[in-house]
Amino acid sequence: MNHRIVAQVLALALLYALMVGSFHPVDLALGAVLATGVVRLFPLAGLPPVVGGREAWRRTRHLPRFAWALTVLVVKSCLQVLGIIFGRHCRADHAGVVEVPMGERTARGVQVSSWIMSLAPGTVLLELDWERRVMRMHALDASNPDQLRQQQEHFYQRYQRAVFP
Questions:
Q1: Would you give the end-to-end CA distance of the chain in angstroms?
Q2: d(Cα 65, Cα 79) in Å, to the nearest integer?
Q3: Residue 118 above 60 pLDDT?
Q4: Apex CA 119: angle with CA 138 and CA 30, to 5°?
Q5: By three-state DSSP, how is residue 82 classified?
């Protein structure tokens, strides 16, 4: 087994133990099993991007802008969900599944886009269809699917692409 994989499994098992607040051997073993599953299911997540020094520097320069845009997206999404929960209009009938094209995203770009979808309240990734190159997501307010697709593409083109293409 690769040293990198072992380090990832140990780090994730430790994170699991911290999250459950217990370092009991059973909890550590369960954390290691879950961590092994995560490392096996998402093999690209542990690979460093293969880029040159200039490209790495360019991506690093764009990282603060990406982080700020992600923070703004999460705050806006929280406010939107609060509006749905406490709003006067019943939005339960507007929830639905929307297919977002992967477009020109690399495998790592798709992973980051999927993470962003699930991180922002109100949307969650359901499935990645690599054959059709679409990301299927569930949205609390899917009344305008084209607008949701456009928002995802806009975030990718404007903020994510420079850091995680």
A1: 30
A2: 21
A3: yes
A4: 100
A5: helix
